[in-house]
Amino acid sequence: MIRSLSIFVILVLTSGVVSRSFAQSGSKAETALNQLMEGNARLAKSTADEAIASDRNNSLAYAVRGNSLTMISGWKSGLPDLEKATKLSPDNGLYLSMLADVYNGLGQEANAKKAAEKAFVALRSPKTAFDYFARGTVNSRLNRSDEAIADYTAAIQMKPNFVRAYGKRAGIYYDNKKATEAIFDYTMCTNLSPDYTAGFYYRGLIYMDQGRYKNAIEDFSSVIKVDASYTDAYLNRGISSANLRNFNDALYDYEKVEKLEPDYWQIYNRKGHIYYQQEYWQSAVQEYTTAIQKKPKEAISYVYRANTYSRMGDAEKCLMDFLMAQNLDPKLSDVYLNRGNVFYNAEMYEDALKDYKKVIELSPKWSGAYFNAALALQGDQKFSEAISYFQKAIDIDPKNLDAYLNKAYAFDALGNKKAADAERKKYVEMGGEQQAVGKNVYRNMYPEMEFDANLAKSKLERGNCTIRGRACTKVDGGIYYAKGVKVVLYPVTPYLEAWYELREKKEGKRTGVFMSKEASRYKMEVTTDYEGNFQFQGLKPGKYFIQVMHEFNQAKTARIYTGSDVSQNGPVRTTTNYYYDQDYTVARSKRLEKFVDIKDAGDSKRVTLANGVIKSCTL
């Protein structure tokens, strides 16, 4: 059975000493109690059955059997026996503490509190190891962690082999973020009782949280060796293997879970994740679909399948699944986060931003929500706004290193070198990799002006004007025609003028000035012929900017020295040097561009794109 227990899993046990907490006991019941203490719940249940068969009013036997059933089959299964035990002995602190645990596990908080408070009164003056243990259980349920630890410690001091006292104390340590102490106590459990599965299991969970997956796998394997039907052990061993990218091992364990708990719908999502990581998209879809069939109203399975459809390039099914998930659970932030990621990867930044802002609304204290929104704004070249969101991400989580670094990039884009370098220094101070600053940084800059897409689109509407031209480059006296090269025409807008002005002022060896991705999409393109000729037709009157990136190889020849020969003729000594000519090429790249203004409808313009005056390049 898949357990939904906290790390305080029922660990009720006693020493061999019988305290005054028992209303009555017999040898079978005491034996059952000791078996339970040693971690053998199934044997304890069997022995308790025998005790109850001999005495239908043996409250200890009912308490032990109820607690054993709880450990074997879950909270609900042990409730009738524990209620029977407390009915037979209504003031017994042991039984009341057990009952409080079960009520708490069932979510019956009022009943749990009432039973715990009554048990606390009965255990006011503990005398034995068991009394301290029972009171520790009550204190833990009343959120008195320090008092509970003190009671469990007292129980251990009185009986050093008190396995479950170690287990209970370990649970409190771990909930209070004292993992080292918790591991020590769980290790004591496993040393004292090698068949005590809870010790291995919960220590394995701690190792998982610490990223020590190999250690976790060893512990879960120890659990399975004792109890081959322990579903949670297979599940968490599979998760640990998946984190180590041992996918075959993970699938083996997930399939064991599937056989043991075929209605456990999350296991199909787990299997889907394994196939997803290996890019077996169709298999992943199949597993996510099975999860949906098992639990059709669980939104998260649709999210997983939507992500897979996105990777398969099926946009329609992807968006349909996200919409279904949103309808099923409008407050599930995973829907908006994952859909936002899909939009972001498709460079649909406005749509991504809408979803990321919804994540912020649902999870306002999560630094990552603001960080993602900042990335979407940065992708849309809205750098000033992006900076404010990066700062919000840092305010929530000062250790969000990526926020510092991306904030630096945003400042670079705005030309604020001082602020950008300050963010890089913070990034390094917080533990990030060393970053170049000052003159050593290559910076990308963009115009601060917002691009008007509608204006650019209108300027590219169909007209009856033409621009004809030729592009060529002159290097070392040689003329190179830009043959088979792409020529780009942009409509001149205030944004383009701002970009050009910024480029003229700021571009250098360590600084690049770029248009936004959106602005760069509004253009016309043609390819030159063998002599560098090109033509744009169907233009409206207006101003245009034409650009060619001319890349070519320049043929050159070098004289290579191979050696010399010396001859002597009387007093005259002659040296002869030998050479040969070697051809080689030099890669060249020239940016050729020009503004062209068309005044009237029907006009035809001729232009030359060249790095200087080249008569043979003129049309």
TrEMBL record:
TPR repeats: 129-162, 197-230, 231-264, 265-298, 333-366, 367-400
UniProt xrefs under InterPro entries: TPR-like_helical_dom_sf, TPR_rpt, Ycf3
Protein name (database record): Tfp pilus assembly protein PilF
Superkingdom of this protein's organism: Bacteria
Coiled coil among keywords: no
SUPFAM superfamilies in alphabetical order: Hypothetical protein PA1324 (SSF117074), TPR-like (SSF48452)
Cross-referenced Pfam families: TPR_1, TPR_11, TPR_16, TPR_19
Keyword line: Repeat, TPR repeat
Repeat recorded as keyword: yes
